[in-house]
């Protein structure tokens, strides 16, 4: 491992076990001790419900929980803390948007553009809302290299485009979308823009104001935080106009049997007791990322990716998928004549954890003419030695299967 990140590994208790080369970080990352401790501390010393208690412990829990919201705000450079909504993850963020924004906005014949890299979490909620409203869900096609076809995208944008939903980093391919080009074009067409940042947050610095999108979503568990917590950031003026997504306690100001008044932002979108410990864990995970040497992290991740690509290129029958150009954090591959699941099982037997399947991107797999793939994906704690261990296991497997 390159020197500046060498110390990281010891901070992750789950990595401290024999025969584990964990290269499935795009599915979920391991958690550093400080995240585990923060959550433990909450339950051991601060546990109370938030926002409505008249007692000291509730006040402490509220301050710690709301402190996590402040952390998210500064991490993504959101203009206001009220614009940061806690959800269960990217999937819930997308469902909230499709249901609340979609029902408020969409008319028959309206168009929703979505990239072909999109995760099912982005596709299905909009597909269902399109079916209910008579809107159309239109995919942005790929070039032969698996990049987004920008000419086709420009041609698709038009007066009927209401929503453009873009994946910042593809979980299946590790490709990075040229958001600096695509978002201004969507805005110029008058569309509302949504960015799925699930695979970006652990790897890239995020500034929603510089990006210039209307909504940004991510999951805690993919950036060293716990499961069950995620974020939807949105522009205040849009969030104000949108109806609530779920109803119940916390999200109301006043209730009678005749009707209810809803709470102000962000609570209007946070019905029920929130995932308090998880939000606190997420805040700690973002603090962990903030303290990383970003330049060193980038150099390290580039070194890991270059090593794995060069190693795969040297193995007969192994092909990186959409591996030309830049891949960030994740790389899919296949082995000629072999099912991806078999390769995954054999790698697991060699102590290497990778992901195999359609990666919740069936339309992408169809576009690439694949049933599925194997995928390696990296986090800050992975080492070049682990890449070498993976490559030598893959070499042995392909030689064994070739016999
Ligand atoms: N989008 C992308 C790009 C993802 O990688 C994932 C998780 N694989 C999701 C959305 C959904 O995230 P979650 O399951 O945490 O809600």
From TrEMBL:
EC number(s) per entry: 2.8.1.7
Ranges for domain Aminotransferase class V: 21-390
Catalytic activity: (sulfur carrier)-H + L-cysteine = (sulfur carrier)-SH + L-alanine
Cofactor (UniProt): pyridoxal 5'-phosphate
Entry-linked Pfam families: Aminotran_5 (PF00266)
First-tier enzyme category under EC: transferase
Key words, A-Z: Pyridoxal phosphate, Transferase
Any one Gene Ontology BP term: cysteine metabolic process
GO molecular function list: cysteine desulfurase activity; pyridoxal phosphate binding
Superkingdom, natural source: Bacteria
Keyword Glycoprotein: no
Family, per entry: Belongs to the class-V pyridoxal-phosphate-dependent aminotransferase family. Csd subfamily.
PANTHER family reported for this sequence: CYSTEINE DESULFURASE, CYSTEINE DESULFURASE 1, CHLOROPLASTIC
Stated role: Catalyzes the removal of elemental sulfur and selenium atoms from L-cysteine, L-cystine, L-selenocysteine, and L-selenocystine to produce L-alanine.
Name recorded for this polypeptide: Cysteine desulfurase
Species in which this protein is naturally found: Ferrimonas sediminicola
């Amino acid at each position: 491992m390159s020197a500046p990140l060498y110390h990281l590994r010891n901070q992750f208790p789950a990595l401290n076990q024999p025969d584990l080369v964990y290269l499935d970080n795009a599915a979920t990352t391991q958690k550093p001790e400080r995240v585990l401790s923060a959550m433990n501390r909450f339950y051991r010393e601060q546990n109370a419900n938030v926002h409505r208690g008249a007692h000291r412990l509730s006040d402490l829990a509220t301050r710690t929980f709301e402190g996590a919201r402040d952390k998210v705000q500064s991490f993504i450079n959101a203009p206001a803390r009220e614009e940061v909504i806690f959800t269960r993850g990217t999937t819930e963020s997308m469902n909230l948007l499709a249901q609340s924004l979609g029902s408020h906005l969409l008319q028959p014949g309206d168009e929703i553009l979505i990239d072909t890299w999109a995760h099912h979490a982005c596709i299905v909620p909009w597909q269902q809302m399109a079916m209910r409203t008579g809107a159309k869900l239109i995919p942005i096609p790929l070039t032969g290299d698996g990049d987004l076809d920008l000419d086709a995208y420009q041609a698709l944008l038009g007066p009927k485009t209401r929503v453009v939903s873009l994946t910042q980093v593809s979980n299946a391919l590790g490709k990075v979308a040229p958001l600096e080009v695509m978002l201004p074009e969507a805005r110029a067409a008058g569309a509302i823009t949504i960015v799925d940042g699930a695979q970006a947050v652990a790897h890239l610095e995020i500034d929603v104001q510089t990006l210039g999108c209307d909504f940004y979503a991510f999951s805690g568990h993919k950036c060293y935080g716990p499961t069950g917590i995620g974020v939807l950031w949105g522009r205040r003026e849009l969030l104000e106009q949108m109806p609530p997504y779920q109803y119940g306690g916390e999200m109301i100001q006043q209730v009678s049997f005749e009707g209810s008044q809803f709470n102000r932002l962000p609570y209007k979108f946070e019905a029920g007791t929130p995932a308090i410990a998880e939000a606190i864990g997420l805040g700690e995970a973002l603090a962990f990322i903030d303290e990383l040497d970003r330049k060193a992290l980038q150099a390290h991740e580039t070194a890991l990716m270059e090593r794995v690509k060069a190693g795969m290129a040297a193995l007969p029958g192994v092909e990186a998928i959409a591996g030309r150009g830049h891949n960030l954090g994740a790389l899919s591959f296949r082995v000629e004549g072999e099912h991806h699941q078999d390769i995954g099982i054999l790698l697991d037997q060699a102590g290497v954890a990778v992901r195999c399947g359609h990666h919740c991107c069936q339309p992408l797999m169809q576009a690439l003419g694949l049933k599925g793939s194997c995928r390696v994906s990296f986090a800050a704690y992975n080492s070049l030695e682990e890449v070498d261990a993976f490559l030598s296991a893959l070499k042995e497997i392909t030689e064994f299967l070739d016999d």
